[in-house]
Design goal:
Rossmann fold; eight-stranded mixed β-sheet; six-stranded parallel β-sheet; binds ligand PMT
Length: 401
């Protein structure tokens, strides 16, 4: 498993009968030449000893938030920055609940809260606990945070019951981590460009025309692309959203600025145009604030179509150009027309007349129209924009690789 070589792994062991499997996982990671630091939660120490973990990992074992904070060499932030990735195994029901609430009551939860790296959760618990609605809801939250799940699997548990909840086997954990690292390595060389949010078109220095785009859809797509290792640039109109520092964020305000930033970031391999770019700009922006008058006539002129420019570029057209279509009527016909007219590979169409969907919502429902595929179109049902983005990026990954 070549991809583990020299990878820095922060391994968090929680208190459960399966903690013995954590020891074997650490041993295998070490055998594959990963560098390991470990955190033991208070209850983990009831199941495994710091000495056994230190001997197997040949690395430092941390357990106390306060002693770490006093340590000049590595505090909880430095510890989370040091790691290339974090594994929590076994992840107990208690830890899953704490993490889903953003708790920072001990070293393990504080490091995870402060982390900007991929976190893998390896659950282990009784089948009834695993099937409990509260755990299901908490797991969903963790997935929304971008954490990845390994297992659990179905089998006989330590308590004698049978079902889903058993911790994955150490070798399977290694395979998942190795495949994640291998995909990330491949994708790092692939540049993805995403536009998001609205643009502001100014009448005078303080007034502008804009639209209801929040940027959520585009930001979620950028996050999903970056989580898969793509070298991601996000060109964003004005929004109130944050994004992790792995993503190259370029903030712009007007369509012209968005166009310029896009030009400056070509070539790219993948381009996703989710921004709601104003189709028009004010033909002559007033230098000073416009005075109150009886009637004001504004002349609008066409803005440059950024998507059109990129999709028709003769030397720097990305391999995969994906446009969005915001429609209120005749979704299929309009989307198909845009697919051809704008020379896209895919058009992702959303009906923006629906309540709590599309513009300024956490949810969306889309249909993807493909140019060169056996499937003409594919509907992705109503769900959170974060989940939808994962599904869109799943399709991008299969198309590009
Ligand atoms: O930002 P959110 O609140 O999360 O909402 C998401 C969204 C509804 C804005 C998003 O899902 C969406 O539909 N984005 C495209 C909105 C739009 O402007 O659609 P359009 O049909 O007018 O444009 C078609 C395509 O051309 C789009 O990819 C658009 O980015 C692009 N375009 C349009 C005009 C222009 N001057 N330059 C462009 O690049």
């Amino acid at each position: 498993m070549d991809n583990l070589l020299n990878k820095k792994i922060l391994f968090i062991v929680c208190g459960g009968v399966s903690a013995y499997k954590a020891l074997e996982t650490i041993r295998l990671l070490k055998k594959n030449k990963a560098e390991i630091k470990t955190i033991l939660t208070k209850s983990a120490k009831e199941f495994v000893t710091p000495l056994s973990v230190a001997s197997l990992s040949q690395g430092k074992v941390y357990d106390d938030l306060f002693s770490v904070e006093n340590e000049t060499e590595m505090d909880h932030i430095a510890l989370s920055r040091w790691a290339d990735l974090i594994i929590v195994a076994p992840a107990t029901a208690n830890t899953i609940t704490k993490l889903s609430q953003g708790s920072s009551e001990d070293l393990a939860s504080t490091v995870i809260l402060a982390s900007n790296k991929q976190i893998f959760i390896v659950p282990a618990m009784n089948v009834r606990m695993w099937e409990h609605k509260s755990i299901k809801d908490n797991i969903k939250k963790l997935k929304d945070f971008g954490y990845k799940l390994i297992g659990p699997v179905i089998g006989e548990m330590a308590c004698g019951e049978y079902g889903e909840g058993k911790m994955s086997e150490p070798i399977d954990i290694l395979k998942e981590i190795n495949s994640f690292l291998s995909n990330n390595q491949k994708n790092k060389k692939i540049k993805a460009l995403v536009t998001a949010g609205p643009t502001n078109e100014y009448l005078d220095p303080i007034r502008f025309i804009t639209n209801k785009s929040s940027g959520k859809q585009g930001y979620e797509i950028a996050k999903s692309l970056s989580n898969r290792g793509f070298n991601t640039t996000l060109i964003s109109g004005p929004t109130s959203l944050d994004i992790n520092s792995e993503i190259n964020l370029i903030k712009v305000e007007t369509a012209e600025e968005m166009f310029k930033a896009t030009q400056e970031n070509l070539p790219a391999d993948i381009a996703v145009f989710s921004a709601a770019v104003a189709d028009f700009k004010i033909d002559k922006q007033n230098k000073d604030k416009i005075k109150k008058i009886e009637k004001l006539t504004i002349n609008l002129e066409k803005n440059i179509d950024i998507l059109n420019y990129v999709s028709n570029h003769n030397s720097m057209r990305p391999k995969l150009v994906i446009g969005f279509a915001a429609e209120t009527t005749n979704l299929d016909d309009n989307a198909k027309e845009k697919l051809t007219k704008k020379n896209c590979d895919w058009i992702i169409a959303n009906d923006v007349s629906k309540k709590d969907s599309g513009f300024d919502s956490d949810y969306n429902e889309v249909t993807i129209f493909y140019k060169n595929s056996q499937k003409e179109k594919e509907k992705l049902s109503y769900k959170k924009k974060s989940d939808l983005s994962e599904e869109i990026v799943d399709r991008i990954v299969s198309e590009i690789n």
